[in-house]
Design goal:
86 residues; 15% helix; alpha+beta; extended; 47% strand
Length: 86
């Protein structure tokens, strides 16, 4: 497989409370609702180990892709598993 597209659905947090900590992670208590909105994520296999991305939509030009969690996770995956880039 050389490419994949997935929908990453949104949710609305009506409440979000930090109620403790365990193993270095915050324990959360929240009330959420799913909404019929999503980001469409397309991943295309590369021959090298580089990770690149493009985001579209209002305000996205202010968010450098290299600073997003998506980029950081992809780079960590490539490094950890000696995978090709995307």
């Amino acid at each position: 497989m050389n490419a994949v597209k997935i929908k990453s659905y949104a949710k609305v947090n009506f409440t979000l409370d930090v109620v403790g900590e365990k193993d270095g992670y915050h324990l959360l208590d929240s009330f959420v609702a799913n909404v019929d909105m999503y980001n469409l994520i397309s991943v295309v296999k590369r021959k090298d180990k580089l990770v690149s991305g493009r985001m579209q939509g209002r305000g996205m030009e202010r968010v450098p892709f290299e600073e997003t969690n998506a980029c950081k996770v992809a780079e960590a995956f490539v490094e950890k598993f000696s995978s090709c880039g995307a």
